[in-house]
Design brief:
Largest sheet: 7 strands, antiparallel
Helix content: 25-40%
Distance between the termini: 14 Å
Number of strands: 24
Bound molecules: 2-(butylsulfanyl)adenosine
Length: 724
């Protein structure tokens, strides 16, 4: 607690309680029962009031407060946690015969004891364990290797279907296990946004869920609409017995079964979990024999495509939990459960043609156009052929039939050619030699599987890609210019390169896009679509919009040089490279006149990048664009961010996790104090700056070369930073 803050008055304490209950209740109804009891506006007002009170009186801000759902906590690293109970995996199979064997074996082992099974869905996501003590969420950990996982509590708190505080009756100490999944709709929306912002889309919902849980900023995680599906309640030994001893204390009113009785079956545990506030999927069935198990499997093998999230099979468990001990576990998995995995659905369909998409970076991706075929709940008519190497491996011929598969994911995959249909006289299909948009001969970067169109300034998808990159958040951050508006500016002939943006006039902008018809867009590409696509004009720029654009352009003139350099979109020059180049050369003129060799001297700039930068600035067109940007007032000089010279002449290597800095922050701090942050220990290293969990290899090397060690506190002393 902050020593200087005044203690919260009773009225504030009461109001926080009231607000917490209200917000919790509205959240619960919204996420568990799909019911909106208040408008978004009212809800936001209550949440804001609660946040303000917690801000004013920090002692009232509990970790289980609904305000934690919006995130804000930043994880520098994820603490590794040893699971209290190892997270076992399940034996799994694709074969119904093995499910039959499992059923026979189980019945034999239980030798006449009456029992049943539960069949439920096998969620295709990321397994996590949630620890609850006295009804409060205290920790969330990923499965990791089953023994040790990452502490992702701050991110888990932002998932609305993870209760922070339990309702009704609950065991005092238990772990709720389940899967974090990314529902298809939210996943696709997020991927669309990523592509619009120039970021790579996630390959599938599972990867996206996993990436989201590892986000450093929990507020970002809060934006990813993840869902937690609980599938297992882990009770420490003794917990059930002590609940039983408490006996009727836990019995519900009106003769309901006691909590302890309910917890004696897996289905009862899930039903109890639902009462506690967990989102438990309703697709669970108690089955008494193999026939019922098989019909559950058959049903979901077909129905799975109609679910709003991905599943990859069915899990069959013995329902009576006291029997679990009798059946025991093997080294890796319990004997009382098994997973049946669905086979990917596969069809064969004729290939009609191969078309090519030109991406915003110029990469040309081949696409197979096929006779439409029904596969896993949707009609499939196009699928990616990935790149030239993949096409060559398939050895495609005219008239071929392709084998297409759909697994637990949404995207169909081409897995081969159906050779039964190969005609002996069929001609092979070769990867295109020229860009399908601008006709420029394609080139292949060494070591890469794909070809790209080198006409980066004249090929429309690339040009639009450049413009989008230029205005993107991490570059010039001109958010009033989205991809639609940039396309409008292009279609109106106003913008052909990034420098043209700064010549835009208010009167040119107003009314743009008013033609509400379909324009052919010169038959070129708007998105990563093929060359036959057309564009519907949807955005109109009004007076206010025009002012916003011009203001944002004006503001972008303050963006520091390193980001301007990144915004130019020179191949291989990412954020870090741009920073290093900006710092090394100090201004654009020095950078433009540097030779390739000099460029390669810059830390982290390899030969290929150096050559590319050199070539970029050798083009008169690029020099002209830079001159025009400079004349428009963009920052073309690095501002000295130095705060001191305490580390002048020193080369410092950092390793481990620090209390007061992230890894990037501590490196930046070294440079701001005149030192050089280097990645590897050598004879030139002045100090080895060590946090927690230092890399053992580095430590060995530092010892061998007798490099003096520096702790974080000593470092902070050196640069005159105070530690509390
Ligand atoms: S039960 C000790 N039930 O499948 C048994 N697992 O190897 C605990 N999974 O990574 C697992 N849906 O995360 C269970 N309904 C379900 C499941 C499920 C998905 C995952 C689990 C694990 C893998 C099994």
């Amino acid at each position: 607690m902050d020593l200087f803050s005044t203690p919260a008055p009773e009225s504030a304490r009461k109001r926080v309680q009231e607000l917490t209950q209200l917000v919790d209740h509205y959240n619960y109804e919204y996420y568990m029962n799909d019911t909106s009891l208040v408008s978004d506006f009212e809800f936001d007002a209550l949440l804001r009031e609660l946040m303000d009170l917690e801000h004013q009186y920090p002692e009232l801000a509990l970790p289980t407060s609904p305000t934690k759902r919006v995130g804000g906590e930043v994880n520098k690293t994820f603490r590794q946690v040893t699971h209290r109970f190892p997270m076992l995996s399940l034996g799994n199979t694709y074969s119904i015969e093995e499910i039959e064997d499992f059923e026979t074996r189980t019945r034999k082992l239980l030798d006449g004891v009456p029992f049943s099974y539960t069949c439920e869905l096998k969620y295709d996501g990321v397994a996590i364990g949630l620890t609850y003590r006295h009804g409060q969420l205290v920790q969330a950990v990923t499965r990791g290797n089953g023994t040790v996982g990452d502490d992702i509590t701050a991110n888990a708190r932002t998932i609305p279907t993870i209760p922070l505080r339990l309702r009704g009756k609950y065991p005092d100490d238990f772990e709720a296990r389940g899967e974090v999944v990314y529902p298809f709709e939210a996943f696709e929306a997020m991927n669309r946004q990523r592509v619009a912002e120039g970021e790579a889309p996630f390959a599938n919902p599972r990867n996206a869920a996993s990436g989201s849980l590892k986000l450093q900023d929990s507020a970002e995680c809060a934006k990813r609409k993840l869902m937690f599906c609980m599938y297992f309640m882990m009770l420490p030994s003794g917990e059930l017995e002590s609940l039983q001893q408490e006996g009727n204390n836990n019995a519900g009113e009106g003769g309901e079964t006691s909590l302890a009785e309910g917890l004696a079956t897996h289905s009862g545990r899930l039903a109890a979990a639902k009462q506690m506030g967990f989102k438990v999927q309703p697709y669970i069935r108690e089955c008494k024999d193999i026939d019922e198990i098989k019909s559950f499997i058959d049903y979901w093998d077909k129905e799975r495509w109609n679910l709003p999230f991905g599943i990859d099979g069915v899990v069959i468990k013995v329902n009576q939990t006291p029997l679990w001990d009798m059946l025991g576990t093997t080294a890796k998995s319990p004997r009382w459960a098994i997973a049946y995995k669905f086979k990917a659905e596969r069809v064969s369909t004729p290939l009609l043609s191969v078309s090519y998409q030109v991406g915003r970076t110029g990469v040309v991706t081949p696409v197979a156009n096929m006779k439409p075929v029904w596969l896993g709940g949707t009609t499939v008519k196009r699928a990616t052929l990935n790149n030239a190497d993949f096409m060559a491996k398939l050895d495609l011929h005219e008239g071929d039939h392709l084998l297409v598969e759909k697994g637990g994911e949404i995207i169909p995959k081409i897995v081969g050619v159906d050779m039964d249909f190969r005609r002996s006289d069929a001609a092979p299909i070769a990867y295109t030699a020229v860009c399908p948009v601008c006709g420029t001969p394609l080139v292949r970067a060494e070591g890469e599987a794909g070809y790209y169109c080198p006409n980066s300034d004249g090929c429309l998808p690339q040009l639009l890609g450049h413009l989008e990159h230029f205005v993107s958040r991490k570059a010039m951050d001109i958010d009033s210019l989205g991809s639609e508006r940039l396309k409008l500016l292009y279609d109106a002939g106003l913008v052909r390169n990034v420098a043209d943006l700064y010549d835009l006039k208010r009167e040119q902008l107003i009314g743009l896009g008013r033609v509400d018809s379909t324009s052919q867009g010169e038959g070129l590409l708007m998105d990563e679509t093929d060359a036959s696509s057309s564009t519907t004009v949807t955005a109109t720029i009004q007076q206010k919009g025009a002012d916003n654009i011009l203001n944002a352009l004006e503001q972008s003139k303050q963006v520091p040089f390193e980001r301007v350099l990144f915004a130019l979109g020179i191949r291989y020059v990412g954020e870090v490279g741009a920073k290093k180049l900006a710092r090394h050369f100090g201004n654009i003129d020095a950078l433009m006149s540097a030779g390739a060799e000099e460029l390669a001297q810059v830390e982290d700039v390899g030969e290929v990048t150096a050559q590319t930068v050199y070539q970029y600035f050798s083009e008169p067109e690029h020099r002209l664009i830079v001159q025009r940007l400079k004349a428009a007032g963009l920052q073309m000089e690095a501002v000295d961010t130095r705060v001191g010279n305490a580390l002048e002449g020193m080369t410092i290597v950092v390793s481990g996790v620090f209390k007061h800095f992230s890894r990037d922050e501590i490196k930046a701090s070294i440079e701001q104090n005149g030192g050089k942050a280097s990645g590897s220990i050598s004879g030139k290293t002045t100090y080895f700056l060590t946090g927690e969990k230092v890399g053992p290899e580095k430590m060995k090397k530092a010892e061998k070369l007798s490099i003096p060690l520096l702790t974080e506190e000593q470092y902070m002393d050196m640069i005159g930073m105070k530690t509390e």
